[in-house]
Amino acid sequence: MTSASSAEPPAFAVGVTQRVQIDPRHGERRDALDQRWHPFLAACGIVGVPLPNDPALALKSVRALGLRGILLTGGNDLAVLGGDAPERDATEAALLELAVRGLPVLGVCRGLQMILAHFDAVPTPVAGHVAVRHPLVFQGQSRTVNSYHGYGAAAAMVAMATAGALEVTAAVDGTVEAVRHRSLPIAGLMWHPEREAPFDPLDIEFFKNFFGATP
């Protein structure tokens, strides 16, 4: 029998949104998540809880499970950009509203694009940002990040569209690579931390600090 003093602390759980995969052969719309997210989040001291692409059910899961934050992951173009997963957009829009109540919401790649669209800075096609790496200064640290996005936004446009509500980090070409809301617990990264091998300690530190998963 495990004593109370040696018992593990409660899991720090964060809700994770999923891409929609359409399987016409079986007539199914499937929610799916890159397996690499789970070990990355575990390295951050976080348990990732996949959420369904249904606004009401996703919100119910957040409440019932006492989730400590929301991660909006990559995959699928936004519906406003011609994507075929409007249920995902509706789900993530509902989850973003939880930030008003203090729940941290972090977007990665498409997740950042969702944040931009939510604040009326709809992304547009960008060139030179798919399957490349580029230098970046993020939180005072010089580093190189991966890039897999065909849509983005110019930092100047985002500043104008959001009336300065989003603090922006841009690549050398002026394209937004990261944002942080100045008054709400909302942030976004355009690169994929889960795709780095090994995982970058700077990304792990950022996730821990943003979600408050530090001991």
In short:
The chain has 215 residues and is α/β, with parallel strands linked by helices. The chain is 26% helix and 28% strand.
Your description of this structure?
This protein is α/β, with parallel strands linked by helices. The chain has one domain: 3-Layer(aba) Sandwich (Rossmann fold). It has six helices and 13 strands. The protein has helices at residues 37-43, 55-65, 86-96, 110-118, 155-161, 201-211; strands at residues 13-16, 19-23, 28-32, 47-50, 70-72, 105-108, 124-125, 130-138, 141-148, 151-152, 166-170, 176-181, 186-189. The strands form four sheets. The chain has a seven-stranded mixed beta sheet. The protein has a two-stranded antiparallel ribbon with strand order 2-3. Helix 3 links the parallel strand 5 and strand 6 (105-108). Helix 2 (55-65) packs across helix 3 (86-96) and helix 3 crosses helix 4 (110-118). The longest helix has 11 residues, at 55-65. It is globular and about 40 Å long. The two termini are 25 Å apart. The model is unreliable at 1-5 (pLDDT under 50).
